[in-house]
Amino acid sequence: MATGQLTPSEYIGHHLSFNQKVVGDTGFWVLHVDTLVTSALLGIVVFGLLWWVVRGATAGVPTKRQAFVELLFEFVDNQVKSIFHGNRHAFIAPLALTVFVWVLVMNAMDFLPIDIMAIVYGWLGLHEWRSVPTSDINATFALALAVWLLMIFFSIKVKGLGGWIHELFCSPFGSNPLVWPANFAFNLIEYISKPLSHSLRLFGNMYAGEIIFLLLGMWAATGLAGTIFGALLGAGWAIFHILIVCLQAFIFMMLTVVYLSMAHESH
Amino acid sequence: MNINLTLIAQAISFAILIWFTTKFVWPYLLNAIEARQKTIADGLAAAERGKQELEVATQRSTEVVNDAKQKATSIITQAEKRASDIVEEAKANAKAEGDRIITGAKAEIDQEVNRAKEGLRQQVSALAVAGAEKILRKEIDAKAHADLLTSIANEL
Known about the structure:
The complex is a heterodimer of chains A (267) and B (156). Helix content of chain A is 72%, strand content 2%. By secondary structure, chain A is mostly helical. Chain A has one domain (21-264). Chain B has one domain. Chain B contains 2 helices and no strands. Chains A and B meet through strand 2, helix 2, helix 3, helix 4 and helix 6 of A and helix 1 of B.
């Protein structure tokens, strides 16, 4: 372990610090370069790959590459079809594919061994670099907030501004003026809780996963037996993590679709 | 773990990815898959149609064969009937021809008989005249009794 002489909290703190770039004078004007660059690179590679495959998509017998992408397509399309009843091909289904694939590959960065990656990043001259964009609250909240804005956009687009405001005050309890405050409070809580639960669920899972990897990594500081033990536990956690990575990406996609189809429905 | 500008930057890259997928990934795949689904559906429909057509054709061919069999049977029956008719007709013709021949022969025989009778009558009358002549040569004048003899000959 390269950081053997550090205390555990320093070790963890080192692995959990962002590569920051300050662009303004207050606390808000900071960019997490690692999150942005990793997620953008992953996005470019994966969606570039998808684009490269589907550009030559044939209606005849598909190649194995195309068949794999079609499996993904069918999977996402089926999920969207069961929830959203409208022209899903115009926006919702491609959005769901984007969310699923992107979140999946960002989560999957968690499989890379954290200390080995630190060495690799060190060669590149990057001393503080976090691999997993989705364990940055900014990344997950950015996605959830974008979905939230889309939700409001579609609410207004489908029901009109008046219809949307009417719904804010008149559902779920009815249109009696006496229950307007209760309705509005209810909707307010719903609108606040949606992006929070959406983003914090993903962030919490990935962040906790990363910390457990770090804790297991610290077994290596106790000697050879501890290293082997830690490696076995780490392998077990990584295998379990395959489930979490896929599940969280799936849940994030499903919530996106559910929120947006709720925005399309009138109460 | 504080919220900062990364949030906005990340949201922008998210927006770009959504735009990219909506524009360049989804439609291509959707078109390909829908075209293939249509091809498969068409193929299945064509197969179904072919099957039905085959069934109809089989039925029709059976009908045609049955028809032909019936026709053949009726033709054979007719031919047999016609053959027996022809035989009957031939028999009738032969019988009529035979009858005609027999009638002709009978008539000829009657004629012959009459002619023979005529000859005999004349010969008898001649013989009678000759006999009478020999008997009555002296007393009776042949010329005087010729009329009487002729009337006798006619009565034969």
